[in-house]
Amino acid sequence: MSANIDLVKTSLAQFANGEMEAFLGNLTADCVWKEPAGGQISGTWVGPQAILEGLFMPLAATFDWKHTAVDAIVEANGKVYVMGTEEGRNLKTGKSATTSFTQILEIRDGKLASFEHIFDTHVFQLTEN
Amino acid sequence: MSANINTVQAQYDALNTGNTAAFLTTLTEDCVWIEAEGSMVAGTHVGPQGVLDGVLRPLGSAVDLEIRAVEFMDGEDGEVLVSGTYTLTHRGNGRRETTPFTAVKTVRDGRVCRASDAYDTDALNRVFDN
Questions:
Q1: I need a surface site. Which of A48, A85, B104, B106 has the fewest CB within 10 A?
Q2: Residue A102 with chain B: CB contacts under 8 Å
């Protein structure tokens, strides 16, 4: 296993276990994190503190979110691609949705330098009502 | 570039140039083509005719689709992973939206037998907003 894939697997496990301090420690100071435009929490955040306050904290207040399956982790062309299925339960309505996702990560000097999250936000919009 | 990647690249080239006949020749007779739930062509479409009637014709009547496939990677068992961007332009109101995508195409004997992708359908569906 490459060091980059090892870092990604470790980071995913930390995130899943709620070990946020350790997870954020794996990000570069200028890490760029992108969430899709159609989502309840969409945008681009730069740096661990902005990612924590702008994305993770609002997400935790809105959805109980988790990966239900990771089908593939592939390193190619200088990036690591994580593909699988994720589930979110809307904390306001209790409704859940599941969709396939891809995360595209770039790694620099042993840390996550960029993270792009691709999934269909439509199914999560349907949990609002 | 591998033969499987060449096949997938040819499929995108055919789509981008509107060459429907060439596109259909890249599919196996039993090809399974899966579109995300929020898409205007959502569902599982089977075979060249099913993809033509269920995906290409409905899409083509409403929007212009431009696919910019940037990265191609060979996976296991004939899979080709693709990442890039989709751009939709509505033919009526001219609205244009772009979103990133990833796709997994499975190639068998030089043709695509399974296709699925991940992207934000809500971002692209904004072209239908007034």
A1: A85
A2: 83, 102, 118
Residue ranges covered by each domain of chain A = 3-125
Query: Is 0.90 exceeded by the ipTM?
Result: no
Q: For A120, which of B38, B73, B104 is closest by C-beta distance?
A: B38
Per-residue pLDDT at A38: 87
Supply φ then ψ for residue A20, to 5 degrees.
-70, -35
Fold of A3-125: Nuclear Transport Factor 2; Chain: A, (3.10.450)
Q: Which chain A residues are Cβ-neighbours of B99 within 8 angstroms?
A: 36-37
Q: What is the pLDDT of residue A77?
A: 83
Nearest to B127 by CA among B89, B99, B100: B89
Instruction: Check if B13 contacts A (Cβ < 8 Å).
Output: no
What are the strands of the beta sheet with B96-108, ordered from one edge? B43-46, B27-35, B111-119, B96-108, B79-90, B63-74
In words, the CATH class of domain B3-116 is alpha beta
Contacts of A65 (CB under 8 A, 6+ apart): A59, A86, A87, A88, A89
- What's the pLDDT tens digit per position in A46-104? 999 999 999 999 999 999 999 888 988 999 888 999 999 999 999 999 999 999 999 99
Domain ranges of chain B: 3-116
Mean pLDDT (chain A) is 94
